[in-house]
Each structure stands twice: as C-alpha cells, then as structure tokens.
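=== Per-residue structure ===
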Amino acid sequence: MELTDWLLTSGERGNSATRLDRRRPDRAAWSHGNLVRPLVHGGTYFAALHSAIREQRAGDLLLFTDWRGDPDERLDGPGSEIGKVLAEAAERGVIVKGLLWRSHLDRFQFSEAENRHLGEEIEAAGGECLLDMRVRPGGSHHQKLVVLRHPGRPERDIAFVGGIDLCHNRHDDASHAGDPQALPIATAYGPHPPWHDVQLAIRGPAVGDIEAGFRERWEDPAPLTRSPLVRLRELAHREDTYADSLPPQAPDPEPCGTHVVQVLRTYPNRLLRGYAFAPDGERSIARGYRKALRRARALIYLEDQYLWSPHVVECFAEALTANPDLHLIAVIPSVPEQDGRITLPMNLIGRVTALDRLRHAGGGRVAVYGLENHAGTPVYVHAKVCVIDDVWASVGSDNINLRSWTHDSELTCAVLDESHDPREPRDPGGLGDGARRFARELRLELAREHLDQEAPGDAQAPDPLCDPRKAFETFAATAAALDAWYDNGRRGPRPPGRLRTYRRPNLSRPARTLYAPLHRLLVDPDGRPFLLRRRNDY
C-alpha cells in the first residue's frame, strides 16, 4: 500500500497558499512518526487537558481555537474551571493565545457572550483571546484544538483535536449521566443531556502542523469582523481587535510512534477578500473523504452529529453502489438537538433525504442507530468519527453535512497507522492494505461501549468484532434485542447494549414541500460561488 492511495497529495488539497504542505523538505502533505490516542468522552479529554496545562511553566506556549467556551466549565472538579485554568497559566508566564468564534446574534442563543467572557478572563491575566468573525455570512468557526509547546522540553509537546468544545454539556463519561453543568437541548435528552464525543491527543511532528494551522488564522491580516456596528462596539468596549505577534515556531517534536497524520480542513471561499492562507477556500476534508471512500470495500463506520445533505452523502452512496460487499454502520442522535416547531422539521428533512439516498444505494447493507444510556435516556451523539476498512480513520470538528464540507471552518486529522493489527482478518478490504492497529482499535473501543462488551483479556486473542461482517451483525442483533424489549413493555431484564434502531421519521408531503427549501437555504448552506460547485470539488 502507498500512502497516496489513501491520503491527499499536496496538489489534491487544492490550496497552494497554505504553508502546511511546504513545511517539510520532502513537501509531504502528512507527517510520520506520531503517537495518537483517542480520548473518548469529554471527561477523559478534560482531565488530560487539565493535567497537561498544569505542567506548563513560564515561556511555554498554549494555543487554542473553539466554537464556544464557557469560562465556568470544570475540567476536573471544583477549582478547574477552564477560565481559571487558562488565566492561571497566563499568570505563570505561559504564552496563552486563543481564537473564539464571535457568533452572529446572541438572541439566536449562539456563543458570543460566553466567548467574550472567557476572553476577558484570559486577557485580564495577561493572555490574549480574540473574537474572530472572519467567516461567510451565516457561517462559524467550528474548529476545536489546543496546542501545548514546551521550549527545551519538546517531549511534552501535545495537541488536542476533535469534536469537544470547552463548554457546558461536554463533560460526560461512559455512564452517560450527562454534564452537571448542563444547557438545555431537545426535551427528550432531559435536564442533563447525555453526551457522546471524541477528541484526539497527538504527540510527534503533527503537533507542528496543527500549530502552523493555528498560526495561519492568527496571522491573517484581515480584520476580525467586517461589520461596522461590531467594530464600533469593539472600540466602545476597548476590545482587543489586533493579534500580537507570536514567538517563532519551534522545530517539530521528534517522531515517537507509528501513526501517519494528515491535517485536513474546511475554509469557505469568502467574498471580496478571502483568507490569506486560503484565498479560494479549502475543502481538503471533503476531498480527503472522497479519496478514502474510493478505497472502501468492507465497512464504513461513522459516528456523526448530523449525517444529512444528499449532496454530501452521495460519495458514500457511490461507494456502496460500486462495492456490493461494502457495509455501513452509522451512529447518530436519535433526536435532533433542536425540537422547535420550525427547526425540528428542517433538521429531519435533511436527515431523511440523506438516509434515503444511502439506503437506496446500499439497502440492507446500511444500518443506522441511535444511542441511549442504561436509564433509557437518549444519548446526544456529538462525535465526528469515520473509520474505513480499519485502515483510514478521521476524528475532528467536521460533520457529514454541507456546512462542514463547504461553509464553516473545520479541522480534522486523518490517521493511518504504519503498523498492522496482528489479529485476523488482516485485510478486510481485499486490496492488500491490511487492517491497521489505530483504526481498528478506535472502532472496537467505540463498538464495545455501545454493545456493553469488554475487551478480550488477551490483547492478541481473536475478537469477533474485528470481522466487519460479524461487527455489522452484532450491532443489528444487539439493537433488535433492545427494541424488542421496549416493544414487549420492558418485561424482564434489560438486554445488554445501548443501541436503538433509528426509525425513519414520518414527515407529511406538505411538510416536506414547505420545509425542504428552508432547509437548503438556512440549515445546510453551500458557500461556494456557482462556478466552483463542480461535482468533484467537494
């Protein structure tokens, strides 16, 4: 197998202005020798992040971007509020720099007020945190990353990338009792919504790539907002609107593992004046998916917050049509996050049309599930994970929808392990690629939680879930048993597992006729000029 079979070359990224693919002497569009660890659940990530920040000292560097940050969200118990932790780091002399999205209007219950408060707390301690509105109309900065660098101690360098924001609702664990510091979402999820999410902890040369991506945004000369009203308000409140210089970037950390990491992104094509580092935008996330899906032969495993837009799922449908042995498992929220009279039908229409397309292509080879905890409360799936044939794995901020592939800023890491999994089957896809340890272990860790299964005591022992067909059948049987238990009035012991078969919502023809145009215009925008909307561009 060649890495170019699965990963994008620099030319295939479609953005010659970025520095990402010019950083190494060989101009490779990925880095070798990384050690990547999946952190499943916000509680796991927050504890690791808190520990890593506490070890930083004067002169170290802490960089972060986020969609929303709640300064009082606890990372690891009382006294570990994220605002306090970041402020204390700045007071110790750590160089703290952050980019938070300035949402459009607070009355839409986005994140501007919370992000402004977190920024104020950091700046009062000597750090710098900017509210960044350099997005297309209706778009957002959705990237979620933290980079910690340690001059003189590069073995401690680490980056965190994934789907977990530094805010309320995210601090959950495998029990899925929800975050004690909760915000309300759809009524079905209760007062403390159970939350399923994934972040990556990355060590090795890829830390330098992720830092370089942050620096591109930080050093972008464009003003933080184009709105005259917002700029007047910034002046009135004496808000920081210009980024101070960063210290020169340190050499990349030394190789420390077997994982190849490729940093993939979405940036929109902004009107008038684009990003200096992506003047025509960048859609390497979409292009990366399309390339990897062309290799899919056995199993696509997805966990996604949305999984909607027929335009985006078309490449999955093409893979299912082209390969009659290919199966797809998708784990998604049972109920959309918003259950308003207008937002719920629009969300359901986007999902129904996407799932209809997948099922038309794959029939019974497509299985879609929701999650619940052992109390029967639905679990909100916020993870953004894709594993293809136990070879290629991606974890990031991007969802399977048109916003994430064209309109918002997003960041994901594709990981390909250069070490094979010693267990059989060695080659689930039949292309000679061989199952890779990282991708397989990620899929198995997630699957075991949803199935209520323990890992075999012997790490080298055969695991039936390694086989893609067995895994597909086990998911189906587990969900069917739990569905039947509910259908029979919950008599007898509750069967093991947390999977519920996702049942297609019934939407009337008038509702679909009314809401479909609104969905396309408001929920799933495509921010590209018409001339760029070519079939293979995303």
